[in-house]
Specification:
single chain; 31 helices
């Protein structure tokens, strides 16, 4: 089925909220279903390079000032050249000329977008909108208030409107800066309370209201500063008011800036005192940046801010109310932080550019009257405890990358927003990311939030990873009547007490499939937790061999580790955790060093720089021969540098370290626990040894160190084994089969 060709028409891509929306829509639109082009009636504008960098064509038409009827023919010629199926216009000038040209050109779906309410708009604008509504398939309103305004003023039937809230690319605002240094750029000191107002200088933004409030506050709070960012026709007028009020030492005019995400980080409060708004992007940006907010009760502001919960809403032009709310934030910093956290969470759940784009795509397919994709997509929600680095998190990311978007509509939910260092990587994949902060033994509020997400989006499958998500996700999915409920149990969790095992056993009754990543987990679940074996399905972890090999850098790791030319290197790559049993590795190292002097030992992983770890090495007297390194981005370079890769775990599932070592043609010596015997073929790709047996471990390592040919033989066999049985494609294909078979059994596909 051919893609739909979509043309966005806007005046230009200069700085502004509507312009930002167009860029984000174009960048996030599903390339499998749509071809997107942007038409600028005037010049391209400052944002154009961002779209073009993403591979989106931006075409300027250089419209003449005021009345230029020839622009219709320019637009029409572009529509025919690009075989446009859908035209979407933004802002009044484009709504006018774009709809006329699209209608003349016979475009099947014509959509205008209304971004704001303008009480000063002349009556004939409303009359024109009323007429053009008759040739419009739909009119997108960015908020319910914008819809009501245009419906009433232009007398347009409500059926013509579709409300799609603006959204922002939240990953852009997840930046880390030196706040003190950034403040110094503007002369702010650490004790200053900095208020920001970002946006164009136009009458509707009411900058003067904030200045009137500032004049009242500085007597009591002389450390208040205001940062204005932007430019526009009223800028000189506002500067004159600053001089008139004697506020020159309290107000900074920063002008147009390219470092907006960083500037939000230096604010203590963001204020939007506008007289009119649509669905303000700057408000969303401030909230997702974790800044407390105050906004006026105009446009879509009250759709974004719930007064007294995640910010404050005041009446426009109410200087007294604004002053009181600013003072409240100054006097109650803890409450301000609570508001800011709730505001940040609400944007992440409801107002991302991915959600906005998905809603727009669904509308376009519906309006065009045919399915671009022949089969209905499976709506999939993946749920995990947190998004800090880990084996389960890496497998989820790789799964998301490879699931075909033509068949799957994917979302992800994390139950711990505080542990989210991988969130940026997830967002870059263009999928909705929900964050729920689960706390305590059993958090009913978190469960209800997850239930609302699942119920509200009518997911076909909910797939959970790790224990907390397994509990909350399965309960919420069951209550929401989700057709397919799947969980992944990735290891033999010996920490579970009888209560945990009972919970697993009960929840297994409402679970369609339990995915394990090694077969050794099956007896534990079947015998230990009495879970029906027919519900358990094995899918081994996948390794992207080409990706691993292509991302090994030329960094001379052995030289950086100060190894001599003929010195051998034995490595263990595991976090600082008792179940990884580093002590056995170090004791084996001591045994080896008593017989082989030209060898060093590398222990790399999270927490390796811990004093207790160093103490273990010191006690054995091998500190000069052991290198302790925390996990880093060049982790694979270090794996590639060792002669032998070791894993001394007491408990293990499907070890990514073993698979990565084999992929890099490294012989492996691992304990014969968990899934290790399913990965390592003893005597063919490496050796298996009993746990807590340093003498046996040392013996096998020394056999390899003294026999380079055997190392090469094991390495070659290991890489071939990864290709045949542990490829990423196989993992994804097996997972897709589980998803489809689950729904097939439920008669959903």
């Amino acid at each position: 089925m051919n893609k739909l060709n979509v043309l966005y028409i806007i005046w230009s891509l200069d700085q502004g909220g509507a312009e930002r929306v167009v860029i984000d829509l174009a960048k996030n639109t599903d390339k499998i279903q749509f071809n997107v082009t942007i038409c600028c009636l005037n010049e391209k504008g400052t944002y154009a390079h961002e779209a073009e960098k993403a591979g989106i064509k931006v075409i300027p038409l250089h419209k003449l000032p005021k009345l230029d009827p020839f622009i219709i023919f320019k637009i029409s010629r572009l529509i025919k050249k690009k075989h446009i199926d859908i035209v979407i216009t933004h802002l009044w000038t484009s709504n006018f000329w774009g709809r006329i040209a699209a209608f003349i050109s016979g475009v099947k779906v014509i959509i205008a977008t209304e971004h704001t309410t303008d009480e000063n708009r002349p009556w004939y604008y409303h009359l024109i909108d009323q007429i053009l509504a008759k040739i419009s398939t739909k009119i997108i309103a960015v908020s319910t208030s914008v819809k009501a305004f245009h419906q009433n003023r232009s007398h347009i039937p409500p059926c013509k409107f579709e409300v799609i809230n603006n959204g922002i690319d939240i990953k852009k605002f997840n930046v880390e800066i030196n706040k003190e240094d950034k403040r110094k750029e503007f002369g702010f000191i650490p004790t200053d309370f900095v208020i920001g107002l970002f946006g164009r200088f136009v009458p509707a933004k009411a900058h003067e209201v904030l200045l009137q409030s500032l004049q009242k506050l500085i007597t009591k709070y002389p450390n208040i500063k205001v940062l204005f960012v932007g430019s526009g026709p009223t800028e000189d007028q506002i500067k004159e008011i600053v001089r008139e009020f004697g506020l020159e030492n309290h107000v900074i005019f920063a002008g147009f800036r390219n470092d907006i995400p960083e500037l939000y980080q230096i604010l203590d409060l963001f204020i939007l005192p506008s007289e009119r708004e649509g669905f303000p992007i700057t408000l969303l940006e401030a909230m997702t940046s974790g800044i407390p907010v105050i906004a006026t009760d105009v446009g879509g502001n009250s759709d974004i801010i719930k007064d007294g919960r995640n910010g404050f809403i005041i009446e426009p032009n109410n200087v007294e109310a604004l002053t009181q709310r600013i003072e409240y934030y100054i006097e109650h910093p803890d409450e301000a932080d609570i508001f800011a956290n709730k505001a940040q969470s609400s944007v992440q759940k409801h107002f991302t550019s991915q959600i906005m784009t998905r809603n727009t795509e669904q509308m376009l397919i519906r309006l065009y009257g045919k399915q671009v994709i022949k089969k209905q997509k499976i709506k999939l929600l993946l749920v995990i405890d947190h998004l800090d680095p880990g084996g389960a998190q890496r497998q989820i990311i790789e799964l998301i990358k490879r699931l075909p978007r033509s068949s799957f509509d994917i979302s992800l939910c994390s139950l711990d927003g505080a542990r989210s260092s991988l969130a940026n990587e997830i967002e870059e994949l263009g999928i909705p990311l929900y964050s729920i902060n689960q706390h305590g033994f059993f958090d009913t509020k978190a469960l209800l939030s997850l239930y609302k997400i699942i119920k509200g989006h009518a997911f076909d499958i909910v797939h959970t990873y790790l224990f907390t998500s397994d509990v909350y996700g399965r309960i919420a999915a069951f209550c929401a009547h989700t057709p397919g409920i799947i969980c992944s149990l990735r290891s033999v969790d010996t920490w579970k007490n009888p209560f945990h095992i009972l919970v697993d056993r009960i929840l297994a009754q409402i679970t369609d499939i339990i995915i394990v990543n090694v077969k050794s987990i099956i007896p534990f679940l079947a015998d230990g937790e009495h879970i029906a074996s027919q519900k358990i399905h094995t899918i081994y972890n996948g390794i992207d061999l080409e990706h691993i090999l292509s991302h090994i850098s030329d960094i001379p790791v052995r030289q950086m580790l100060h190894l001599h030319e003929n010195e051998r290197l034995v490595g263990i790559f595991a976090r600082n955790d008792p179940i990884k049993d580093h002590m056995t590795f170090f004791r084996a190292a001591k045994i080896i060093l008593s017989k082989h002097k030209k060898v060093k030992f590398l222990a790399m992983g999270d927490g390796m720089s811990d004093e207790a770890m160093q103490s273990q090495v010191d006690i054995l007297g091998i500190q000069d021969k052991v290198i302790l390194l925390d996990h880093s981005n060049n982790y694979l370079d270090n794996v590639a540098s060792v002669d032998v890769s070791v894993l001394t775990s007491l408990i293990e599932g499907c070890s990514n370290v073993i698979l990565e070592s084999m992929a890099l043609r490294k012989p492996v010596v691992a304990t014969s626990v968990g899934g290790n015997p399913e990965l390592v073929e003893d005597g063919k790709t490496g050796y298996l040894v009993p746990p807590k047996a340093p003498e046996k471990l040392a013996e096998k390592i020394m056999q390899l160190l003294s026999n380079p040919e055997r190392c090469e033989f094991f390495g070659k066999n290991g890489q071939q084994r990864v290709k045949e049985f542990f490829s990423m494609d196989k993992m994804v294909d097996d997972t897709i089969d589980v998803y489809k078979n689950t729904l097939k059994n439920k008669k959903r596909i």
